[in-house]
Design brief:
The structure holds two protein chains of two kinds.
Chain A lengths: L19 H36 L1 H10 L2 H24 L5 H31 L15 H35 L1 H6 L1 H25 L6
Helix pairs in contact in A: 1-2, 1-5, 1-7, 2-5, 3-4, 3-7, 4-5, 5-7
Chain B lengths: L1 H4 L17 H5 L4 H29 L10 H36 L8 H24 L12 H5 L4 H28 L12 H33 L12 H35 L6 H14 L15 H29 L8 H24 L1 H7 L3 H31 L5 H28 L13 H31 L56 H6 L1
Helix pairs in contact in B: 3-4, 3-5, 3-16, 4-7, 4-8, 4-9, 4-14, 5-7, 7-8, 8-9, 8-10, 9-11, 9-12, 9-14, 10-11, 11-12, 12-14, 12-15, 14-15, 15-16
Classes of the chains: A mainly alpha, B mainly alpha.
């Protein structure tokens, strides 16, 4: 194992690989399988949510009505846009457009942080409206408290994933600023892009499950 | 490969073992073989921890009254046994040790595809283990290994959070290992190593990895919900708030039934390597062995409901899950028949790995057939939560999985350590283990059928004879586990050095020196034929050549 010192540039090619393109394929494949695993992680939550909603349809409706559609929609827009900037960065990196790639990565981080900030404001408002399950919970309907249990667990877990994503993209920026060539070849760029897209897709589903059941019809 | 040709200080060729002797050189190594050893040491520690817990339980059960430990302590002991044995021993046992060590070598690779992820997975395992050890030291958990709600979320006065956190963290270790194995099998096979030339052990690891990657996250999320409900008080499973405790059982068993296949598929892979070698015979029906393993992995995902026949699940669900549980027995039976057919007209010798492997087939068959009893709804209603169930799954997990683990330890010991092991002692230990195992668990079938429920520290006196038999058997079994610890430790320092291929076995792992150099092969091997070519297709098998091949000394001279 070669320990990279602070002065030498990071090496994209690691043991046991002899060929960078194979290594990139392997990293991409590994990330896809990890995403499969992540889908089962959230899939379990979605299944549990669906079962509970079918047991308490009116409670979930009342709960969803209390969820803040404005914050949710703003966040959806922010996250979809961040997926666009992330994808552009992933495409720009191997095309040797270092400045462009770094710019889009920075935009992705900014949008991700904006998402987290909006989410924080929404949480704050939820807490002041006593929407955290427990004594003094705002809604009387059977199941509404359960809806908000899922709300907090699902959005909380998603926030953890967002935070991890922001850290991963920031790392690309930090290393990429010092060694632009690394961005061209490193398997980490595409893998991070894939991860970011999954976190985005999960949010799309959460948006539908959380904000929409109490509206319309 | 200049590194492989390098000489260590004592003039012997550099091996993965002599490639650094400091603690740091082990704890930061990304060599798959060293990580396998790290795992081996850690799972052994947990194996004995779980063993001590159940030892006290068996001692308590010698008398019908609750006299050695309190009922509460008793609950904590069998819970500890279950959690430790399932998640910290059986699930990682063969994949993280032999899978890690052998998978790259069997396909002719230098390492796993993601060596740093591999090391990281071991640290995750240790982190999860620390949570569990903390839960133990702080006072233990009393929910049973299944963490059933609402007891675990609302009523239990024990360290559920720490224990659930431990299992949650170790789950990611499994996922990381699974991803690594899948990518390695896809991307790193050497020239000529086609899918249908893979040794069955590799196929077993591949199938197991998919189960790990797809089932483990569902357990993680189930435990996450339990932790959230317990810690934050959010009513997810709480029936007074419209929750459904049965939902937890569905999520839990969606992982925990496939987990049984995580434990048994690697064992099947091990015996599929050992039978051809000691029968000098090609494996019977290679392709069907592959399809059977894949079928077990796939169908295994759709049988979880048979754990809930008496939980209030709908009758239609019971019918479907019962049917599917019968279906999954078919590929398992194919494997048993094929192993048996491999022995037919073979030139069989009875080295210790072969004893363990034959023991595996017998015990696995008993465990599997009693599983069919329990998959039958009316019989399960009679036998559920009795010692019949306990005996059934111990026949699979201990009789099956652990026997295969010991078979693997002996079979690949010369490769891993570069030393032989004392054959007489090993055969004795293998026979002792088979005897001790049946002595322990067969009485449990009988008393379970008579109605002795599981998880009780006191019981009606008419069951005492069976409990005494079972506890005496456990003593024998403990001796059979401790014995290899003794003679293998001796063998590591004192036994004769092993040649490359002491068993005259096929497989790329036997073409490198014992123990292997850090990068496994001097040059990437090329494969020209399928696995298990112990004899030409048209000719019967011949007896194994006397004595060990001495290529290694010849090549180094």
């Amino acid at each position: 194992m070669t320990a990279s010192t602070a002065s030498s540039p990071p090496v994209a090619l690691h043991e046991p690989w002899e060929d960078l393109s194979r290594q990139r394929q392997a990293a991409t494949m590994g990330m896809w399988i990890f995403l499969l695993s992540e889908m089962l992680l959230f899939g379990g939550l979605f299944a549990a949510y669906t079962v509970c909603r079918s047991l308490n349809p009116m409670g979930f409706r009342a709960g969803s009505h209390e969820a803040d559609l404005v914050y949710g929609t703003i966040n959806t827009v922010l996250l979809i846009t961040s997926s666009l900037t992330m994808t552009l960065a992933v495409r720009a990196a191997p095309a040797r457009l270092h400045k462009v790639a770094l710019g889009f990565l920075a935009a992705t981080v900014a949008l991700g942080l904006a998402f987290l900030a909006v989410k924080g404001m929404e949480y704050h408002e939820d807490l002041t409206k006593s929407l955290f399950p427990g004594p003094g919970f705002k809604l009387p309907q059977q199941g509404a408290e359960q809806f908000f249990s899922f709300y907090w667990v699902m959005t909380g877990l998603h926030m953890l994933h967002m935070t991890a994503g922001v850290i991963a993209v920031s790392r690309l920026i930090v290393v990429g600023r010092r060694y632009p060539e690394w961005l061209e070849t490193s398997p980490a760029v595409e893998a991070t892009g894939l991860y970011w897209s999954l976190v985005d897709v999960i949010w799309m589903i959460l948006y539908v499950l959380i904000y929409l059941p109490g509206r319309g019809g | 490969m200049s590194q492989a040709a390098a000489q260590a200080a004592d003039g012997r060729p550099l091996t993965y073992l002599s490639n650094g002797f400091t603690l740091r050189s082990w704890l930061t190594s990304t060599d798959h073989k060293r990580i396998a050893i790290l795992y081996a040491v850690s799972i052994t520690a947990f194996f004995f921890l779980g063993g001590i817990a159940i030892g006290i339980v068996r001692l308590e059960l010698v008398t019908p009254t609750q006299d050695l430990v309190s009922a509460d302590t008793y609950n904590r002991l069998f819970t500890l046994h279950g959690i430790v044995m399932v998640w910290f021993f059986l699930v990682p046992s063969i994949p993280t040790t032999f899978g890690n060590f052998l998978l790259p070598m069997m396909i002719g690779a230098k390492d796993l595809a993601m060596p740093r992820l591999n090391l990281f997975s071991w640290y995750l395992y240790v982190a999860g283990g620390l949570f569990t050890v903390y839960a133990l030291i702080a006072g233990g958990v009393d929910t049973g290994w299944t963490f059933y709600t609402p007891f675990s979320t609302m009523f239990s006065n024990s360290h559920v959070l720490a224990a659930a956190m431990g299992v949650f963290v170790v789950g990611f270790s499994s996922v990381a290992t699974g991803i690594n194995f899948i990518v390695t099998t896809h991307m790193m096979r050497t020239r000529g190593m086609t899918w249908m030339r893979l040794p069955l052990f590799v196929w077993a690891m591949y199938a197991t990895s998919f189960v790990m990657v797809l089932a483990t996250p569902v357990l993680s999320v189930a435990l996450l919900l339990v932790m959230a409900e317990r810690w934050l008080g959010v009513p997810i499973f709480n029936p007074t708030h419209g929750g459904d405790p049965l939902l937890f059982q569905h999520l839990f068993w969606f992982y925990s039934h496939p987990a049984v296949y995580i434990m048994i598929l690697p064992a099947m892979g091990v015996v599929s390597e050992i039978f051809p070698c000691f029968a000098r015979r090609r494996i019977f029906g290679y392709q069907f062995m592959v399809y059977a393993m894949v079928a077990i992995a796939v169908i295994g995902f759709f049988v979880w409901g048979h754990h809930m026949f008496v939980s209030g699940q709908s009758g239609y669900a019971n019918l479907v899950f019962s049917f599917l549980s019968f279906v999954v027995a078919v590929p398992s039976a194919i494997k048993v028949f094929n192993w048996t057919a491999t022995l037919y007209r073979g030139q069989i010798t009875f080295e210790a790995p072969m004893f363990y492997a034959i023991g595996f087939v017998g015990l696995f068959t008993i465990g599997g057939l009693t599983g069919l009893f329990l998959a039958t709804v009316p019989i399960d209603i009679q036998a559920t939560d009795t010692y019949f169930v306990v005996a059934h799954f111990h026949y699979i997990m201990v009789g099956g999985s652990v026997s295969a683990l010991f078979a693997a330890i002996h079979f690949w010991w010369p490769k891993m350590t570069g030393r032989m092991y004392p054959e007489i002692w090993a055969r004795f230990a293998a026979i002792l283990m088979f005897f001790g195992f049946n002595f322990t668990f067969f009485p449990q079938f009988i008393m379970g059928w008579m109605g002795m429920p599981r998880r009780y520290g006191s019981y009606p006196p008419e069951f005492q004879i069976y409990h005494v038999l079972s506890s005496a058997g456990a003593l024998v079994l403990a001796a059979a586990y401790l014995l290899p610890l003794g003679y293998l430790t001796w063998a590591y320092f004192r036994a004769p050095r092993a040649p490359r291929n002491p068993w005259h076995a096929t497989g790329l792992e036997w073409t490198t020196p014992s123990p292997p150099p850090p990068l496994n092969f001097d040059a990437p091997p090329v494969v020209n034929e399928g696995p298990y070519h112990y004899h030409p297709a048209e000719v019967g098998p011949e007896a194994r050549p006397e004595g060990a091949e001495d290529e290694q000394r010849a090549s180094s001279a």
